[in-house]
Amino acid sequence: MEGDFSDIWVYLSASPLLHLFLTLLAYLGGQKLYERLGMHPLVNPVLIAVIVLVAILVVTETPYLVYFEGAQFVHFLLGPATVALALPLYRQVSRIRKDLVPILLSVIFGSLVATGSAVAIGWAFGISEATLISIAPKSVTTPVAMGISEKLGGLPSLTAVFVILTGILGAMIGPLMLDLFRFKDWAARGFAIGIAAHGIGTARAMQVSEIAGAFSGLAMGLNALATAILLPLLWQLFF
User: Fold this and answer.
1) pTM (2 decimals)?
2) CA distance 31 to 48
3) Phi, psi angle pair for 223, to nearest 5°
4) How big is the CA angle at 49 (ends 46 and 54), to the nearest 5 degrees?
5) Under 8 Å between Cβ of 73 and 23
6) What value does the CA radius of gyration of the chain take, rounded to a whole number of Å?
7) pLDDT tens, residue by residue, 95-125
């Protein structure tokens, strides 16, 4: 048995799959800790996995491109995982039709608040225009946010960092804020998390309730569309 493990390790250490293995191991470790501590929102398995992987890359002086060569398989699965959200969403079609108007109004308002608050805070602290553009689409899923940032003259790589931080913080703090203001409806909770914290928040919502996950996925998609339309128009109007 020990010989088998040694053979596997020797194979992985010489293969790009090593970083895929470490990524999955770090997430599983974070998930176990999350479950052990009663699934508390502050013990976010994504954040734990990021901290562990960054520490490993820094200690081993591994370039990000080398890491991504193996971990790209996880990146590839993001597409099918997003499409899979259509199934729980389909089960909520009747409720979506019934609440269509408030849903659309909430998306527009949420998109404006998410982008406007980030730009206002950044402007108050005097950050550069390129950084303002980079932070503005922080609540949108990463590929769309990077596209918006690049189109407006921002820094897509910096935008990706802001998007990931927003998703992790939203997944950690969002449920606590909703509890504080006593939002009990799973659809409303999921919708709020999806607008504020995109895919990472949706993954968290899906863990606690299928209804919350469905509405979070809906909010994530609509918010990406709304922000891609509204942000360039508002940017031309005010800057």
Assistant:
1) 0.80
2) 9
3) -65, -35
4) 125
5) no
6) 19
7) 899 999 999 999 999 999 999 999 999 999 9
